[in-house]
């Protein structure tokens, strides 16, 4: 059902955490939200996770459903290029760790002590060539789940 509409990014992230299993634990689900720059403390996301508070593990279909619900309810995402330009603070054509930290601080969805973890997750999933920064292609690949509504 929903799995077929999910991007390769969510499926690949799920598979990295699952390591051959058919389910992943709640902390891994939260990591997948973070790597897609969905703040865990946003009221919509808090409510979504509260609905499943008694579950310990999740299938790919369940993760896909949760991700789709969060994206739909959060809605109104700006165009990917505009988002890339916003996050490329020093305008060098790449999003560095420092660029990410600056923008995530400005967004005020994360506590200061969460920033490095979020940035590590973004780089782990997005930085394909492992140069410790995201080019536009890597950025779009990582965020291809974001609907352009």
Would you kindly provide a written description of the structure presented here, covering whatever features stand out?
The structure is a single chain. The chain has 149 residues and is mainly alpha-helical. It contains 8 helices and 4 strands; from the N terminus they run H-E-H-H-E-H-H-E-H-H-E-H. The protein has helices spanning 8-18, 26-35, 43-51, 60-74, 80-87, 97-107, 115-126, 136-142; strands spanning 23-25, 57-59, 95-96, 133-134. The longest helix is centred in the middle third of the chain and has 15 residues, at 60-74. The chain is globular. It starts with 7 loop residues before the first helix and ends in a 7-residue tail after the last helix.
Question: Short description, anyone?
Answer:
The chain has helices at residues 8-18, 26-35, 43-51, 60-74, 80-87, 97-107, 115-126, 136-142, and strands at 23-25, 57-59, 95-96, 133-134. With 149 residues, it is mainly alpha-helical.
Keywords:
149 residues, mainly alpha, two-stranded antiparallel ribbon, globular, disordered C terminus
User: Could you say which structural class the secondary elements and strand pairing correspond to?
Assistant: mainly alpha
| Backbone shape | globular
How far apart the termini lie comes to: 21 Å
Q: Level of helix content? A: 55-70%
Radius of gyration: 15 Å
Could you give the order of the helices and strands?
HEHHEHHEHHEH
Number of helical elements: 8
Residue stretches low in confidence (pLDDT < 50, at least 5 long) are 1-6, 145-149
SSE arrangement:
Elements: H1 8-18, E1 23-25, H2 26-35, H3 43-51, E2 57-59, H4 60-74, H5 80-87, E3 95-96, H6 97-107, H7 115-126, E4 133-134, H8 136-142
């Amino acid at each position: 059902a929903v799995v077929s509409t999910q991007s390769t990014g969510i499926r690949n992230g799920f598979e990295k955490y699952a390591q051959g299993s058919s389910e992943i634990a709640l902390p891994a689900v939260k990591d997948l939200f973070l790597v897609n720059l969905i703040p865990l403390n946003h009221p919509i996301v808090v409510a979504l996770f509260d609905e499943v508070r008694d579950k310990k593990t999740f299938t790919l279909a369940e993760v896909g459903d949760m991700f789709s619900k969060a994206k739909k309810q959060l809605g109104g995402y700006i165009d990917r290029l505009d988002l890339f330009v916003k996050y490329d603070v020093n305008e060098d054509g790449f999003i560095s760790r420092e660029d990410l930290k600056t923008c995530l601080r400005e967004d005020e969805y994360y506590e200061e002590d969460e920033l490095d973890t979020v940035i590590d997750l973004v780089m782990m999933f997005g930085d394909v060539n492992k140069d410790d920064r995201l080019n536009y292609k890597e950025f779009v690949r990582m965020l291809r789940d974001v609907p352009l509504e």
